[in-house]
Every structure is written in C-alpha cells, then in structure tokens.
C-alpha cells in the first residue's frame, strides 16, 4: 500500500525539520529522533511510515513507528477521554472543571468532589486542560475509557494502566505512532476502526486470494466522532497548535491534537485532513528532557509540512464527510 512519493515526502520532512539537531549517541545514531505515519482515509491503508531520521547505517533496522512505545501525553485524550465521554452524556458544550491534578492524585481524595475553573468541553480540548481531562476520565471511568484503546488494538495496555493517570497519557509502556495514527483515522472514518496495514492482498499462484484487509469495526458512534473532529479543528485554529498557522498555508479542513509528556520528553502531533491522517512523534530513544519540545513545536511543524506536500494540488474546498 506504500506510495513511494508520499514516503519520500514524509521522510524528507522529518529530516529537514530536525536537521539542526546534530548530536549523536555512542553508536553514531542521531540522538533526537522522530517517527511518523500517514494513513489514507479512503481505505485505511498505510501510505508512508518513517521510523527515524535518515542515516547511512548497515544493518540498522529499528523502525520507531511500530517498534517503539512512548508516552502519548495529551494526544491520547480524544481517543480515551473525550470521544468516549461524548458517547455518554457529554456534548461539546458540556461544562467541565479544570481541577488541580496534584490534589486529585493524593491518596484518599474524592476526585468527584473537586472543582476548578469551569469551561466547555470544547474549550478544555482546544486548550489542553489536564484538570478537565482528569475530571472527565474520573467520571466515565478508566475501564470504559481504555476499552476504546484495546478495541483499536493498542496492544500494551496492561492492568496497571487502569488509573486516572491514563487520561494524561500516563501508561506503563505507551503507544506507537502507528497506533495513534489508526486511532485518529477511526475518528475520520465515522468512528470505525480499520487495522493499519501495508498489505492490500495476498494471492496464491492460482490467483486465489489468501488474504485481504480486515473490514472496519465500529468503535465510536459517528456522532461522537464527528463532534471530536469538529472540536479538534479549534486546536489548529486557536488552540495549542495555532502557532503552526495552518490556515495561512491551506484552506483545507484540518483537525488535530498536541501531546507533550512530563519534562518535555516526548512531543506528539496527531492530525487529520479529509484525505490523510498523520501522526508524528519526536523525542530521544532514551527519554530525556528537551526544553523546546512541545507537541505544537517540531511535531506540529513536521505534520504541517508533510500534509501540505501530500495534499498539494488536491481540492481544498472539501470538508470531512460528516461535517455539518
């Protein structure tokens, strides 16, 4: 399913964005790394997958896009907190509260009794308010929220992850860039998940088909998925990814979410247009702080430049299939 042109564009975008980071580890591998995945929204196929910055190494086979599990930070919120919540009693206009997370994490505290600055769920997502995600996740429950990740084949969700910390991306092992791309692609696909694959078909020497891609599986309701896409448009227009100035470069509809882990060890941007879903991770193989790293910095920049290249010449006067 690979599109070699898209593959080259995504690889070059990663290389160029991080070209200024020249530090290498003891093996001569670039210390600051990235992974990125592009999924075709029409069919769920992986069109491009980048497992690291380009280097001339014989026998170097690590592909971070599907072999490296990292903490997703706030980029997990649409998948396990807010879209699931909107399948219950929440709407984009529901009032949520930016509770103090440190207080909520203290032993014996009744999280449901805590309060804080009130705002709409939409505003909480656009401005990535951790206290709101913590409050909503407490209300819907970790078992319910994480069930959506396991339905979408996030394969390293373990019993220890069923805590409120998961709402902010605090997972034992984490997620891959492929998994995050497939999760966001499900939101575009009216809530239906398709297993990310690079294989379109396998046939034997008689031409009989031995394998074809799996069918889509309903995970989110189409209404909740549509609302989440609409909310995440605001992240790009006026929220935590506004600095990439998408609208000044393209009139194509776009939606996404940033993610930054504690001490800026991982940066994410997962975003969609009607044509493609792209997820981007930036960080070190052995996690460490990079003060300038935010989901809205290098990851969003890579996403923007790659998406612009991939959609160049396509009709920009289109919206997501179920946009109002």
Summarize the structure in words.
There is one protein chain. This protein has 324 residues and is of the alpha+beta class. The chain contains ten helices and eleven strands. It has helices at 4-17, 64-67, 77-85, 101-104, 121-126, 130-140, 142-151, 177-188, 222-237, 298-310, and strands at 32-40, 46-50, 95-98, 117-120, 192-193, 201-203, 209-212, 217-218, 255-260, 266-272, 276-284. The chain has a five-stranded antiparallel beta sheet, with helices on both faces. A two-stranded antiparallel sheet has the order 3-4. Helix 3 (77-85) packs across helix 6, helix 3 crosses helix 7 (142-151) and helix 3 crosses helix 9. The longest helix is centred in the last third of the chain and has 16 residues, at 222-237. It is globular. The model has no long low-confidence stretch (mean pLDDT 95).
Summarize the structure.
The protein is α+β, with helices and mostly antiparallel strands. The protein is built from ten helices and eleven strands.
